[in-house]
Amino acid sequence: MDATDKPASAPDAKVPAYSWYALSVLVLVYVLNFVDRQILSILANDIKADLGVDDAFLGFLYGTAFAIFYALFGIPLGKLADSWHRVRLMTIGLGLWSLMTAASGFAKNAAMLSGARVGVGIGEATASPSAYSLISDWFPARLRATALAVYSSGLYVGGGISLVIGALVVENWNAAYPNGGPLGLAGWQAAFIAVGLPGILLAIWVFTLKEPVRGLIDGMPAEPVEKPFRGFVEELQQIIPPLTILGAARRGPIALAVNLLGLVGFFFAAWLITSLAETGQGIIMGAIGSGVPAIGAEISDQWFLLAVGYYAIFSWASALRSRDAQTFALTWGSPAFLCTILGYGAVAFISYSTSYWGAPYGERVFEISKSELGLLLGAPAAVTGFLGVIIGGRVADWLFTKLPGGRLYVVLFGLLAPVPVVWVMFTTESKAMFLVLAAVAQLFASSALGAAAATSQSLVLPRMRGVATATFFLATTLVGLALGPYLAGLVSAKSGGDLGLGMQSTLWAAPIGLVLLLAALKLVPAAQERVLAAAQSEA
Asked: Which of 229, 139, 127 is nearest to 462 (CA)?
């Protein structure tokens, strides 16, 4: 062997050009992922007027209706990504969410649109578990945060250009067909179709990617799983109610009792929150009259659907503990892992709310047209989000060489730096200031993602990466996406449409995230050492 040739597992081995090519394709997938997800922002006011819904429902539609199913199916699909052909899995998922995005364009009422968004969530649940696992097998540990940050840049690019694309389609469609176009479609419906259909072509391209050998780059190649779908089916049975009850019963009477107690507890909490919220609304309406719209149905849908999600995750984690004690110990049983992902969940809580409600707020408060929002809000956000996640990833990798938990300092920055920016953004009376601060908020918040993702991956063994990724995204979805945008919309709806107040109300997540990340800084170095020891014992 030539002296310059080094095995893939060597610490300073050169990364093949194909790895960068494959990463670029995954970035395109993630761009489309967030175009299809985030386009709802620029369409929100049109949907609100056309379907007669309020801000609480819009937050529910963007957040909870998508997030619950994204999170629940992310677990079994993460397991499948750990055992099956990841490229094929991503291809299938991309095709599904693209079709469901297009189907959103044919929705005639709130229920149909919610159902389509559920389908988008299930399809998109395949993307990141597959991508994170693939990237971890294409890039060595020293570049993993950078590679994950490059992939994650698709989030911000897609979110930004979704405003541009949505604005162009809606305004041109409505100008050409002011009374409804072919099939009676409005501009917002045409926009869903326009961004959904290209995903079918991209799925064909993804299908051509080569599947890497799992764990080879770390010097720990894993043997192919003989029956890869068995684990996937088992995970479905452990996470989809009411099959969760049967799964618990198979583990014994104590497991069944704990599962039923969890079921009752989560639904009682949902009922209690709903009752308190509706009582509070009644007091407000009695005090100031009928200016506050009734939103009881949306409150009920939000909290009971969230109870389903939390109960399902509780059931799955309980089953994981008995079926794969080591994976449970390194994820749910690891305070370092939990503090890391929940700390980043606080970042997502604020950033998802800001990115979703920014366009509707600008349209309502500053009367900015959709085309202007696309160019002045969406395009800068795409650029600053891309820069933030790349710079954050590089800084995180540099800090990792200096300190075992160094990447977490970047996550801390991504949590705290946006707080004053978001506050001023949603209180200023200056249109220019609002637009500038929106870009700055995206720059700061985006810096945390690559660092948080790489830290979570460093806390598990290679065979657990898909499940670890899915668990990581539970924090971004069930904490950030399912709660942040909805609560901002709920406060807005309760206050007669004051979105600024709604966004200010999301900033209380920052001190909670601060406590979690400070704890992670103390816990992560020792946890990483334990993972290395476990890997050596398995070798």
From this structure: 139
pLDDT on residue 13: 65
CB atoms near residue 211 (< 10 Å): 12
Strands (E) located in 277-424: none
What mean pLDDT value characterizes the chain?
A: 88
Q: pLDDT per residue over 36-51, tens digit each? A: 999 999 999 999 999 9
pLDDT of residue 494: 86
Token pair for residue 517? 């990340």
Query: How far apart, in whole angstroms, are the C-alpha atoms of residue 260 and residue 283?
Result: 35
| Per-position DSSP letters for 379-447, written without gaps between them | HHHHHHHHHHHHHHHHHHHHHHHH-TTTHHHHHHHHHHTHHHHHHHHTT-S-HHHHHHHHHHHHHHHHT
Cis amide linkage into residue 525, ω under 30° from 0: no
Q: For the chain, list residues with pLDDT below 50.
A: 1-8, 283-296
pLDDT of residue 97: 95
- 370 contacts 376 by C-beta, under 8 angstroms: no
Output the DSSP codes for 437-457. HHHHHHHHHHTHHHHHHHHHH
pLDDT at 457: 87
Question: What pTM, to 2 d.p., does this model score?
Answer: 0.84
CA–CA dist 251, 323 (Å, integer) = 10
Full DSSP string of 242-307: THHHHHHHHT-HHHHHHHHHHHHHHHHHHHHHHHHHHHHHHHHHHHH-TTSPP-HHHHHHHHHHHH
Nearest to 51 by CA among 102, 112, 97, 100: 112
